[in-house]
Amino acid sequence: MNLGLRILSAAAKLFGPPRRQAEDASLRDIGDAGVAAALIALGAKLAKADGVVSNVEIDAFKNVFQASVESAAGIARFFDLAKQTTLGYEAYAKKIYRHYKARPDILEDILDGLFHIALADGIVTGAELLFLETTSKIFGFSPLTFNRIRAAHLGRALDDPFLILGVDETVTDKELKRIYRTMAAANHPDRLAARGLPPELQKLATHKMALINRAYEEILKIRKQYPVHERLVDNRS
Questions:
Q1: DSSP class of 226
Q2: Which of 3, 31, 82, 231 can pair with 71 through a Cys bridge, CB separation 3.0 to 4.6 Å?
Q3: Residue 66's pLDDT is what?
């Protein structure tokens, strides 16, 4: 049985009656074709997350999930079936995680592919971002790792504490403290006033100092929640 037929066979199980769809157990023991089917379904359901599956999203999916000529028609039919609703995407993400949990590099590649599909129409909606973040959690990634992956595709939010301090998630605690102290000393309102900062700008300087302090406190809070081994190498056991 070729890949296309195996995928369709798996699809018959994955897209069975609703009572079976609701049970994660329905995704077990369906072999490699089931993993392929789960990948297709996850991409299709992400394309649906913003409400409309556009042609550019379909093209982006084809770019990510490159199929052989003989299996393309079967994959297309499966994609069309999966894109009808976003319901159940968590189960597909769990299936993929179980298969690749020993290969976080592959899981990250898959998440990169999903970001590529979400970005195909030029904007990532809140619903799409929630889909991606939930999938990332299912894949076992920490919030720090998800933020790194998101930043690689979308850039950093203006209020991102790492952006404000000019560091990335892998910075050591010692280096983080050094950078914070250097920035705090250079931007302290009293020091700026002594250097001749006009009174009109001193309020702005106070605001900037507050941003720096808050960013440092937010990073420390995150690091208290996620020990160093979880920040640098995600624990997926």
A1: S
A2: 3
A3: 58
pLDDT at 78: 64
Give the Cα separation of 12 and 14 in Å (integer). Answer: 6
Name residue 195's amino acid: R
Closest C-alpha to 90, from 53, 20, 42: 42
CA–CA gap between residue 177 and residue 219 (Å, rounded): 11
Domains and CATH numbers, the chain: 3-154 (no CATH), 161-232 (1.10.287)
- List the structure tokens of 171: 């910075």
Higher pLDDT, 148 or 57: 148
Cβ atoms of residues 33 and 9 within 8 Å:
yes
Distance CA 95, CA 58 (A): 22
- Is the confidence at residue 229, as pLDDT, over 50? no
Burial class (CB in 10 A: 0-12, 13-18, 19+), 98: middle
pLDDT at 45: 83
Query: CB of 43 within 8 A of CB of 96?
Result: no
Asked if 15 and 82 count as a contact pair (C-beta separation under 8 A), the reply is yes
DSSP string, 150-171: HHHHH---TT-HHHHHT--TT-
Judged against a pLDDT cut of 90, whether residue 1 lies above it is answered with no
> Residue 96 corresponds to which tokens in the numbers above?
């993929």
Look at residue 53 and tell me whether its pLDDT is greater than 90.
no
